[in-house]
Amino acid sequence: MTSLSVRLAALVAIASVAACADHSVVRQGRVTRPAAPPSAMPNSESFRMCAAKLDAAKVRYQPLPNQDRGGGCATIDTIKLMDIGTPTANLGPMTCPLAAHFAAWARYAVRPAARLYLGSEVVRIETFGTYACRDVRGTGGTIAGKRSEHAQANAVDVAAFVLADGRRISLVDDWRGDGPSAQFLRVLHQSACKRFRTVLGPDYNAAHRDHFHLDMANAGSSGRSFCR
Prior knowledge:
Blueprint: H1 3-21, E1 25-27, E2 30-32, H2 45-56, E3 60-63, E4 67-70, E5 73-75, E6 78-83, E7 88-89, E8 94-95, H3 96-118, E9 122-129, E10 135-138, E11 141-147, E12 155-163, E13 168-170, H4 171-174, H5 180-193, E14 198-200, E15 212-215, E16 226-227
Parallel strand pairs: 7-9, 14-16
Antiparallel strand pairs: 1-2, 3-6, 4-5, 6-8, 9-12, 10-11, 12-13, 12-15, 14-15
Helix pairs in contact: 3-5
Protein name: Extensin-like C-terminal domain-containing protein
Keywords: Signal
Organism: Sphingobium lignivorans
């Protein structure tokens, strides 16, 4: 191999090493970079205090990484509820205060009210979910530019309750009645208004005809909750 060939081979090797130092991968003309590392886990003082309350109440949960999801949506200081004593469907990320109030509401309001008004145990709570990167839903649809508390994982929508005897009590079917099922739901609405900052039900607007919207939105300087 000539001296020129040796130098060319060395330059090619150096270029190859430099390319490997950048972890980008070229596929079909596109550069694919590795996923960003996970965000830091919740570690604020308020989160630690909230988590201590969940621990004391023997609520099982899993802390979730903080994540800015873009577009005004984020999941900060959130957890995944694993066991609150009553199986609950569709729970995603929830801010810790929301999760703590929801667990307490299920334990101290939902279960006792079912025994008192319906003579049975609640074996399942059905929800429409928690986190959703979207705007507020008003009477005429979403309100553009006004993010829902769901966009911060600070809200949960409760749709129905399944009983040990097989009955299913739902907002869409039983709210308008006048029997024990309706009484049960109205008591839950009243109790929720004492625990959550905002409670919206079927009497608020058509968008909430089939669920309770429960959130922990900042009530502002007045400190008042919004219950409809």
